[in-house]
Hints:
By secondary structure, the chain is mostly helical. 71% of the residues lie in helices and 3% in strands. It has 14 helices and 3 strands. It has a 3-stranded antiparallel beta sheet with strand order 1-2-3, covered by helices on one side. A hairpin with a 2-residue loop joins strand 2 and strand 3. The longest helix has 33 residues. The relative contact order is 0.15.
Amino acid sequence: xxxxxxxxxxxxxxxxxxxxxxxxxxxxxxxxxxxxxxxxxxxxxxxxxxxxxxxxxxxxxxxxxxxxxxxxxxxxxxxxxxxxxxxxxxxxxxxxxxxxxxxxxxxxxxxxxxxxxxxxxxxxxxxxxxxxxxxxxxxxxxxxxxxxxxxxxxxxxxxxxxxxxxxxxxxxxxxxxxxxxxxxxxxxxxxxxxxxxxxxxxxxxxxxxxxxxxxxxxxxxxxxxxxxxxxxxxxxxxxxxxxxxxxxxxxxxxxxxxxxxxxxxxxxxxxxxxxxxxxxxxxxxxxxxxxxxxxxxxxxxxxxxxxxxxxxxxxxxxxxxxxxxxxxxxxxxxxxxxxxxxxxxxxxxxxxxxxxxxxxxxxxxxxxxxxxxxxxx
Length: 377
């Protein structure tokens, strides 16, 4: 482990002494587990589509250094830079989502992907972290400057974002963004009465979605159906967990992954369960929980509203996505095409996750708001 002198004034030394090393260690462990599981899960999928065995592994190994570099670079920045990055990122993601509606690649009845510079990109993945920071900035701006209608502006952006997500359609992402924004509203001082109305509105929205969006209707019906009528992937996922038992069959020894179409993406948690058993599954759950709790505890020690709202939303988004992926794989909720952060294969997923975690590491650094003031001075 390298060290720096506390007297050094370099940006790298300043980052080393201010970044939360526990949080950084937890994230590093999660990334390493993700690399390991991709080596195990993706070859079977690659062979099934006629590609070279390590096709997906090689592609993921291209994105991982980019993702780590992005995360570390952002983690060294001050709040002013993070706010600007989030605003620019949010605007670009929104533009790309509009373009996706017209020129997107349709998959399973939804247009969520668009070709950018030869790569397939899912713009909605980048909405989660950028919207969280932009909304936090608007809430904070209203507290500091009474003439800025931060809550109103945030509400307008939320409505625009949800509209674009539903037009794709992407019910799961809409749910995540709604929960993030609602959580920020609550932390910002929303009354419990309004919280109750918001929950009722959310339930009503899910009921409407059940009748309006056919794919959402199908997934809900499969979830409540009898065991013989659940989807093929869920059946295979549950079989994988049964085969894995407590300690698993061993690295590369899984057999159910040979028949799960999305074993390297949406159902990689099932591969972990079969080959490494309940032990690794609990380790993954513990890592996600530790990252969220650690981030929350750090942010709540601060009296800066922007830090509290943005870090709480970023960590909640990270944890919620993990919960949705693991719960749908375990057949605890209807299936949802949502990746497991830092674990599942996918360039958009790991880059967007690194964007969010990089901003989270920057926001939770010691005295990061002091650096922000120094630059302003």
